[in-house]
Design brief:
The structure holds 2 protein chains of 2 kinds. Chain A has 2 domains: about 120 residues, no CATH class; about 110 residues, 3-Layer(aba) Sandwich (Rossmann fold). Chain A contains 13 helices and 8 strands. In chain A, strands 2-1-3-4 form a 4-stranded parallel β-sheet. By secondary structure, chain B is an alpha/beta fold. Chain B folds into 2 domains: about 300 residues, 3-Layer(aba) Sandwich (Rossmann fold), CATH 3.40.50.10420; about 70 residues, no CATH class. The chains are: A alpha/beta, B alpha/beta.
Chain lengths: ~240, ~500
């Protein structure tokens, strides 16, 4: 059984600590993650901007990297969600279309794999902090990841959960949107960070580092000290694995 | 903001105006919040929302797939009821037909109930030019007509105005200072419009649904003004988009369940009128002459287009606007066209053959999918926005700098070696700007992003660089997998490719 880590470009370059946390948490259950080095980026920035030919160049590295994998696990609902677009991206290319469909079927976001495949809802973690949670749009709306993180968090000892007001609203990241429509994106992330502040949580938890980079960036810009963590990091730290 | 800022300015420039308009941002947030919470409660209370949503989608998909059949059926039945039915290929054609009727009737005044198609055609201006006074009788439409603006929301045209601004506008009409009290203001408008209803020669309406099996047109409203418009004047003109058709009254039940709940959170609007032909001899009231103008104006371009045909399923409830975080911050005028919000960002370019003039609206979305989630007939607007962007690139209208950037992106991410090399260069380059692990510079490409945020720096070693060490460390202490977990994984792999496959996702 070959279980592969799809680290995502952001996870590789900026947040290696999240990938490490995933490796450690899954290792607890005997999952030997392997890391195919051919992988680069899912291609989403190009896909969403309309540059599909360019997106296919990145996507092919992902198709190649995970050709033989049985399960492909990523720390991002958005990047896994992008894999769900691959059949559309390769609709005129029968060979890659078939590969894209196979990859889509075996791709999982981290909590999807942990909860729905391994059947883990209690990771035995302890994390005595007041937390809130931002459900990223692509994970929750595109992949339907809603209950999985809630189940995991509800079983973390000492964790005090404060719901985030208007949690389902987009944080304003949207990839190139944040650059092209900087002021709209800025207004959105400011509103999101305002809501995070309202909860008075010590830690903001999420499942997607792009959104968390955005929200954390705004919180830091305003001098706020809220800690921002991927749920995998919370579990790893809480299992004494960090 | 000027009324018809239109496409000549960029969406970015228009959005900037809106973001700096404190009244607008506050007013739009206040009302969209109320509407989307209303919808959330109404759909939860309904109990089987998802099933009805799917039913609504199926009705719309079926009708649009057989639009020629149902449109003919509707027209035959409407004509049998004594309605004059006209077809307008382009917007100008519809305007010309309406003006001919007005001229033939020597009309001086037209009272109108809310119609987005009429806004799309800019019909009021055309009527004014031939000396016909057109008066909007929906309160919100009346307000924006006084202000000389376009609607900034499909359902709530004056959503961007607060009651003080409205009091200013109405005080001018009244010739005296009116209190900024909603009862006082609505009372004034009611009295004012009552006179207009009585003197009007023509009543003009839009159409929420047109029922093929009976030739009826159906209107949903809360103010009773559409009732007045369709009963008092001797002549009625109804403007309808060619896609407003549903097959039967049975289907209307589904639509009547979905539309008001999605639009305002109401179980049903105050009034729902189904009008089947002009006044008959036994009727107490109603128009003596009734016209229906069926408008294409770019709609049929979507027929047969696998990526955009579902656009015609829209029932104009405005739920996508209320759910959209971009709309909430910039309001409707920033979209530069009659239709705003996510539906407008797709519909406007689509109706205009995706001409480059309009397609930058498609960039005003973070692709969060809230519109799709809110849509009562599940139109995948977030996907359509991406298709619009792709069509722009494919037709060679991509911005040169972005095209170059994306070529670079493809070169870097097309191979892991290139990406690794780029990362190494980035780590050296960032030394110029990193302070305390963060990048705060507002120069160059980071200007927009860093005006609201700080950027994390690249760590010394990427995940790729750490992998071997991590694997050695973790691998040594890894326990055997529990047999039941192993079995679950094996079962999942076995079940693949046997249909019904996959997990999650829509």
């Amino acid at each position: 059984m070959k279980v592969s880590l799809f680290i995502t470009c952001l996870g590789d370059a900026i947040y290696p600590r999240v990938g490490e946390a995933m490796v450690r948490v899954l290792a607890r259950y005997g999952v030997a993650l392997e890391f195919p080095k051919l992988q680069t980026c899912c291609g989403q920035p190009a896909y969403n901007s309309g540059y599909w030919q360019e997106a296919r160049a990145s996507a092919k590295t992902i198709l190649d990297a995970f050709e033989d994998s049985d399960f492909v696990i990523s720390p991002s609902g958005s990047c896994t969600g992008m894999i769900h677009h691959y059949p559309k991206l390769f609709e005129a290319d029968p060979v890659n279309l078939a590969r894209a469909e196979r990859l889509r079927e075996k791709s999982y976001e981290f909590t999807q794999f942990l909860v729905n495949v391994l059947g883990v809802t209690d990771a035995g973690a302890v994390f005595p902090h007041k937390v809130t949670y931002h459900p990223s749009c692509h994970g929750s709306r595109l992949l339907g990841v809603k209950d999985e993180p809630m189940a995991l968090m509800s079983n973390v000892r000492g964790l005090e959960f404060v719901p985030l007001p208007y949690a389902e609203d987009c944080c304003g990241f949207g990839g190139t949107f944040a650059v092209k429509m900087a002021d709209i994106s800025g207004a959105m992330v400011t509103e999101k960070a305002d809501h995070v502040k309202e909860t008075e949580a010590e830690v903001l938890i999420g499942l997607d580092m792009a959104c968390l980079m955005n929200i954390a960036g705004n919180l830091r810009y305003r001098g706020e000290q809220v800690r921002v963590m991927h749920l995998a990091e919370v579990l790893a730290e809480g299992m004494g694995q960090a | 903001m000027s009324a018809n800022a239109g496409a000549r300015t960029s969406v970015k420039a228009r959005a900037e105006l809106a973001l700096n308009d404190e009244f607008l941002v506050k007013a739009v947030k206040f009302t969209t919040e109320r509407l989307r919470n209303g919808k959330k409660n109404a759909s939860a209370e309904h109990g089987n929302w998802e099933e009805w949503r799917e039913r609504g989608r199926q009705i719309r998909l079926h009708t649009i797939a057989h639009l020629d059949y149902y449109l003919n059926l509707f027209v035959d039945n409407a004509r049998a009821n004594g309605v004059h039915v006209h077809f307008a290929d382009k917007g100008e054609d519809a305007v010309a037909i309406a003006m001919q009727i007005a001229e033939r009737k020597a009309a001086k005044t037209v009272v109108k109930s809310k119609s987005m198609v009429s806004e799309e055609l800019h019909l009021n201006h055309a009527l004014e030019k031939i000396g016909v006074e057109a008066i909007e009788t929906d309160l919100g439409e009346y307000i924006i007509q006084l202000a000389g603006e376009m609607p900034s929301h499909i359902v709530i045209p004056a959503i961007h105005k607060n009651r003080y601004q409205i009091a200013d506008l109405l005080s001018e009409v009244a010739g005296e200072r009116l209190e900024a009290d909603t009862t006082v203001l609505a009372g004034f408008v009611r009295k004012k419009l009552r006179e207009k209803f009585l003197e009007a020669d023509i009543g003009m309406t839009g159409c929420n649904f047109a029922i093929a099996e009976t030739g009826s047109m159906v209107l949903f409203e809360n103010e009773g003004n559409a009732r007045m418009v369709t009963t008092v004047p001797k002549t009625q003109i109804t403007l309808m988009g060619m896609e407003r058709i549903i097959p039967s009254f049975e289907d209307l039940e589904v639509m009547a369940t979905l539309l008001p709940r999605s639009a305002t959170g109401q179980k049903l609007t105050m009034y729902m009128s189904a009008i089947t032909g002009p006044k008959r001899s036994a009727d107490a009231d109603g128009p003596e002459e009734m016209h229906i103008i069926i408008v294409d104006n770019g709609r049929s371009l979507q027929l047969g287009d696998p990526e955009f045909q579902e656009l015609l399923n829209c029932i104009r409830c405005g739920a996508c606007l209320n759910a959209c975080p971009v709309y909430r911050h910039i309001g409707g005028h920033a979209y530069g066209s009659t239709y705003s919000g996510p539906i407008g960002a797709v519909l406007t370019p689509a109706l205009n053959k995706n001409v480059a003039e309009w397609d930058d609206i498609a960039n005003a979305s973070s692709l969060c999918g809230a519109c799709y989630e809110a849509c009562p007939v599940k139109i995948p607007l977030h996907d359509m926005l991406v298709y619009l962007r792709r069509r722009k690139v494919e037709t060679g209208n991509g911005k040169a700098i972005e095209t170059a950037g994306m070529k670079g992106f493809a070169a870097l991410t097309g191979s892991s070696a290139a990406m690794k090399a780029a990362l190494a260069i980035g780590k050296i380059g960032q030394k110029l700007v990193v302070r305390g692990g963060e990048i705060r510079t507002k120069l160059g490409p980071l200007k927009g992003w860093n005006s609201y945020r700080v950027t994390p720096s690249l760590p010394r070693r990427s995940f790729r660089d750490r992998w071997e060490k991590l694997e050695r460390e973790v691998g040594g202490a890894r326990p055997q997998m529990a047999p039941e977990m192993k079995k679950r994984m094996e079962d999942i792999v076995k079940q693949r490719g046997q249909g019904g496959g996959g997990h999650g996702g829509h």
